């Protein structure tokens, strides 16, 4: 049921300029504050044993307007709530470390209290927080500031108040002090439940997440997507240029026969399989190694169970040759052995908080050497847009930009720049995969249109057998087997075969914490 708004004038007898107005914001039943109308959440407190958050409305909606809301009214603003809780945690953390408090465990205890579903309910708080809650009520002139709030259908709306603006800066220092010690446990729980619901709704094997280190969650602003999103300014190869295998390949070519045994045209640009060349082909290949049309090529995947069915073959694992899969124009059909990455992720994954490198990724099942894990997805943007985004985010911040530069040399000849995948705001679980100088995962170019050198899939395969729950990692700088350099820094020493990098003149060093024996010490500069 939606309560009606009550406005109480404490003393209507006061002169207008002195009038102190308290607007009591009632519970609005199922009506919700719409995120698009909210600037941010700026404070929290406990009122009547329940968590409340102070909404700062967008200037355009009602200038300088604030109102307190209970959690059920904020379920459309969970991303903003998550931003607020993060800022609050950082504030508390910096205060506790600045003050060098007597008990170094105080912050830890606060986290435990927020996390533990069995912990005391906010309504049964200690006497100190009870008095703080009482103080919070005493402090507030009213439940909203410079505005009136009212239900309008499914939404809670705000109207600028004609009354005198609130003299104090909201939130006041006292409000912030109350906020720092008031529980936000229910808000954290709501956010967590929402994330789990989102993950459950994703197609394919389950994706879970776990954090035993702190109170942070996967960012709600991050959107899980199933395919890359192409942003404006991109030019694509004409889809008409996509050709499939037509000549020799067909579905059901015979027992265990498929594109791997035919001269599949999809593999035109793949490496030549020298062992299958006849004498005439050998002579031609030796005299002109650049002309490989019509020659049998290296097939990327094992095709028999005994040989790790579906896993990448050793030849591809040793190098970083592009993989060319069959496509919708091919004669071979959907059951073809040359289709693996296009069928999507087949493994469950877990996003988990590491001790010192933010979120990471692991698989609750053992992964076989050469097994496909997932692709790197995101927004595909131009090189210039990537520069702009990088400049905006600032140095030292996490980076989720991945250049599609496998065919950089060919593109340079045409005076074109490679596109970039940005996984920061949209992507798949592999966006959480960390770097290692000795990785257990390798990244590959996977193309469905052999003539398109700008847009293709980035696919991850296991470099070796990986036990269940071992963190998955790839080498951020490992572009190619013959092009393996550590960023733009300067190689300053090489101790016991370990390269130590320091930044170049304009570089900021991001230290690597992969812990590998031969760690390069620098993630990038
Ligand atoms: C693609 S993201 C990986 C996911 C990230 N950990 C997160 O929490 O979202 C890349 C960022 O993770 C961190 N990172 C990844 N590997 C690291 C490593 N070996 N050492 C230190 N930081 C690392 C860096 O902040 C880097 O910018």
Strand proportion, as a percent range, falls in 15-25%
Look at the helices and sheets and give the structural class: alpha+beta
Fraction in helix:
10-25%
Mean pLDDT across residues: 81
- Report the sheet with the most strands, covering strand number, pairing sense and barrel closure: 5 strands, mixed
Radius of gyration: 29 Å
Amino-to-carboxy terminus distance = 57 Å
Which stretches are low in confidence, meaning pLDDT under 50 for 5 or more residues running?
1-23, 101-142, 481-501
How many helices in DSSP terms?
A: 9
Give the total of beta strands: 28
Principal-axes geometry comes out as elongated
Across the major sheet, the strand order is: 10-14-15-24-21
The small molecules bound here are: S-adenosylmethionine
Can you describe what's shown?
- A hairpin with an 8-residue loop joins strand 5 (50-57) and strand 6 (66-70).
- The protein has nine helices and 28 strands.
- The longest helix has 22 residues, at 78-99.
- The two termini are 57 Å apart.
- It is elongated, with a radius of gyration of 29 Å.
- Among the domains are: 6-183, no CATH class; 485-525, no CATH class.
- Helix content is 19%, strand content 22%.
- The chain has helices at 78-99, 106-115, 127-139, 173-181, 185-200, 279-287, 314-318, 383-393, 408-413, and strands at residues 6-9, 21-24, 32-33, 38-47, 50-57, 66-70, 144-145, 147-152, 155-160, 207-210, 223-224, 229-230, 323-324, 349-353, 359-362, 372-375, 379-381, 401-403, 420-422, 426-427, 434-435, 441-447, 457-462, 471-474, 490-495, 498-502, 510-511, 522-524.
- Helix 1 packs across helix 5 (185-200) and helix 3 (127-139) runs antiparallel to helix 4.
- The chain is α+β, with helices and mostly antiparallel strands and 525 residues long.
- Strands 10-14-15-24-21 form a five-stranded mixed beta sheet. Strands 4-5-6-7 form a four-stranded antiparallel beta sheet. A four-stranded mixed beta sheet has the order 12-17-19-18.
- The chain binds S-adenosylmethionine.
């Amino acid at each position: 049921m939606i309560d009606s708004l009550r406005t109480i004038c404490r003393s209507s007898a006061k002169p207008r300029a002195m009038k102190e107005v308290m607007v009591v914001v009632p519970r609005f039943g199922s009506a919700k504050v719409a995120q698009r109308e909210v600037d941010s959440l700026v404070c929290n407190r406990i009122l009547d044993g329940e968590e409340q958050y102070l909404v700062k409305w967008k200037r355009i909606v009602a200038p300088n307007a604030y109102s307190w809301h209970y959690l059920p009214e904020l379920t459309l603003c969970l991303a903003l709530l998550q931003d607020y809780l993060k800022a609050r945690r950082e504030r508390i953390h910096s205060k506790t470390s600045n003050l060098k408090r007597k008990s170094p465990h105080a912050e830890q205890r606060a986290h435990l209290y927020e996390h533990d579903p069995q912990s005391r309910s906010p309504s049964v708080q200690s006497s100190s927080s009870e008095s703080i809650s009482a103080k919070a009520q005493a402090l507030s002139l009213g439940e909203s500031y410079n505005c009136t709030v009212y239900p309008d259908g499914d939404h809670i709306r705000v109207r600028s108040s004609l009354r005198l603006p609130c003299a104090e800066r909201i939130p006041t220092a006292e409000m912030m002090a109350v906020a720092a010690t008031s529980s936000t446990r229910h808000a954290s729980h709501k956010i967590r439940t929402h994330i789990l619901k989102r993950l459950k709704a994703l197609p394919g094997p389950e994706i879970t997440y776990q954090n035993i280190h702190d109170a942070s969650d996967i960012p709600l602003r991050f959107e899980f997507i199933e395919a890359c999103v192409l942003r404006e300014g991109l030019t694509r190869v004409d889809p008409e240029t996509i050709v499939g295998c037509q000549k020799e390949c067909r579905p059901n070519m015979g027992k265990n026969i498929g594109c791997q045994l035919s001269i599949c045209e999809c593999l035109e640009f793949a490496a030549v399989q020298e062992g299958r060349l006849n004498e005439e082909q050998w002579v031609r290949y030796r005299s002109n190694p650049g002309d490989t049309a019509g020659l049998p090529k290296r097939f990327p995947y094992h095709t028999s169970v005994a040989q790790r069915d579906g896993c990448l073959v050793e030849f591809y694992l040793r190098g970083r040759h592009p993989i060319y899969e069959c496509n919708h124009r091919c004669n071979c059909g959907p059951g073809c052995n040359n289709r693996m990455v296009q069928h999507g992720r087949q493994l469950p994954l877990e996003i988990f908080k590491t001790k010192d490198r933010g979120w990471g990724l692991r698989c609750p099942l053992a992964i076989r050497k050469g097994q496909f894990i997932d692709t790197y997805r995101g927004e595909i943007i131009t090189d210039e847009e990537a520069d702009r985004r990088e400049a905006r985010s600032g140095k030292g911040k996490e980076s989720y930009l991945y250049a599609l530069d496998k065919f950089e040399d060919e593109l340079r000849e045409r005076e074109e720049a490679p596109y970039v995948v940005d996984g920061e705001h949209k992507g798949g679980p592999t966006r959480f995969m960390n770097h290692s100088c000795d990785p257990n995962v390798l990244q590959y170019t996977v193309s469905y249109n052999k003539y398109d050198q700008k847009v293709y899939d980035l696919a991850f395969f296991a470099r070796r057998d990986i036990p269940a729950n071992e963190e998955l990692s790839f080498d951020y700088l490992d572009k190619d087997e013959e092009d393996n350099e550590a960023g733009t820094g300067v190689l300053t020493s090489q101790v016991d075969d370990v390269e130590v990098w320091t930044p170049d003149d304009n570089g900021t060093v991001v230290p690597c914490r992969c812990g590998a024996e031969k760690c390069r010490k620098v993630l990038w500069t």
